[in-house]
């Protein structure tokens, strides 16, 4: 069975069966890990996507595969961390053919995605240093920091920055840039090693491989952590690395963990990674997430008009993976279309997002935490907020707490009322609406709320 063919047919069929929006939101970035006798293993990007697909599309997916393969197979979804790349090999052997290498040498493909640039990378405390390092390397490739080693958790913008470096260099020089994922590098190399039988042909491919990876000025290799279990490819990568660096060619490496935490890497390779500059991308804080969301909804791809309270709500509740934030926005766009393009209310947005991010949200912000943060901020006690005292400062802090509970948690008015000392839920609605109204004109109040939100996300 030609697995790649099956997979492509599957995607085509899925595209026909679903709307563009659904396809782009949920299925576009799926990839096939392997097809075995009884299983079809598929890689997904994040938990919310996995949950959503399993809950809503599993049956459809099984049916499509049944149609194509004529067999009923179990469909299993994996997150990036859940499978080891070795499991990948079967399908990879069939995917790559040396045509890629030939193509590259003839046409000088860079593999760069033009949509990832420095201009549309939003900078904040969490990524400012990484951003500057990348910018510096882009402006002086091969001269300043070699290699540049960027690391950080999934979805924080590593790949985006790599492409930004590449795009910058391509736009400002004649240098030859190549971006590859570690998987691609590994696959091509394994393919050559497998081909040993046909000596003559293989020699040509080895030359092509070498030319592809060495006859360039900038090599960017993504997700290097996957090289961990591949001993032979590691050796080849070390050779490539040496050849490039000896000639002052820039190398940029991305990893989801620090050099020290790279498992099963040869020491000499780790030592090399330590030669240049290492830079981490940290988890974005609330403010950066808000900035990124504002930036994304302005983009042509989305063009989504969201009120500040919805933006705050997403920033506070949808985790720190930016890929997930983007998914949430696309989801909102889909909902908006369903609701006939009327202005989205916080209520609608909440409904849309709940389904999307499932149980990974709302874990951080509980009412109890909000009461703690608010009382501390105003030098009061939690009891003050829950109690009956009606002095102006307490009443005010209480309303702010109501407002934050509404925005930052997934609790009903009734449960917020219960937590806030058994008030009537209409009191909570009133408090929420009053603050929502005042915040529009009262700058000081707006600042207080922003500060509190930051404290909530700490
Ligand atoms: P990683 O490689 O670290 O897993 P990516 O670079 O693929 O993450 O980023 C995931 C998504 O989030 C991409 O679409 C990227 O454009 C977006 N993204 C991440 N950080 C930022 C940022 N600071 N500004 C704008 N977009 C970002
Ligand atoms: Mg990446």
Q: Return the CATH architecture of the largest domain.
A: 3-Layer(aba) Sandwich
Q: Structurally, how many domains make up the residues?
A: 4
**Helical proportion, percent range:** 55-70%
Low-confidence stretches: 86-98, 358-363
Strand pairing plus helix content: what structural class?
alpha/beta
CATH class of the largest domain: Alpha Beta
Give the CA-based shape: globular
The radius of gyration computed from the alpha-carbon positions, rounded to a whole number of angstroms, is 26 Å
Give me the count of strands: 8
The average pLDDT score comes to 84
Q: Tell me the strand percentage band.
A: 5-15%
Biggest sheet layout: 5 strands, parallel
The helix/strand series, from N terminus to C terminus, equals HHEEHEHHHEHEHHEHEHEHHHHHHHHHH
Q: CATH superfamily of the largest domain, called what?
A: P-loop containing nucleotide triphosphate hydrolases
The number of helical segments is: 21
**Ligand species:** adenosine-5'-diphosphate, magnesium ion
Quaternary structure: single chain
Alpha carbon gap, first and last residue: 51 Å
Describe the overall structure.
The protein is α/β, with parallel strands linked by helices and 458 residues long. It has four domains: 3-92, 2-Layer Sandwich (GMP Synthetase, Chain A, domain 3); 96-280, Rossmann fold (3-Layer(aba) Sandwich); 286-362, Helicase, Ruva Protein, domain 3 (Orthogonal Bundle), CATH 1.10.8.60; 365-456, DnaA protein, C-terminal DNA-binding domain (Chromosomal Replication Initiator Protein Dnaa, Chain: A), CATH 1.10.1750. 57% of the residues lie in helices and 9% in strands. The chain is built from 21 helices and eight strands. It has helices at residues 3-17, 20-27, 47-69, 89-95, 99-107, 128-139, 158-172, 182-194, 199-214, 231-246, 267-273, 286-298, 308-317, 322-338, 346-357, 367-377, 382-386, 392-408, 413-419, 425-439, 443-456, and strands spanning 31-35, 39-44, 74-79, 148-151, 177-181, 218-222, 250-255, 277-280. The chain has a five-stranded parallel beta sheet with strand order 5-6-7-4-8, with helices on both faces. Strands 1-2-3 form a three-stranded mixed beta sheet. Helix 2 runs antiparallel to helix 14 (322-338), helix 6 (128-139) packs parallel to helix 7 (158-172) and helix 12 packs across helix 14. The longest helix has 23 residues, at 47-69. It is globular and about 90 Å long. Residues 86-98 and 358-363 have low confidence and may be disordered. It binds adenosine-5'-diphosphate and magnesium ion (MG). The site of magnesium ion has 4 residues, from helix 7. Adenosine-5'-diphosphate is lined by residues 116, 121-122, 127, 152, 154-160, 292, 322-323, 326.
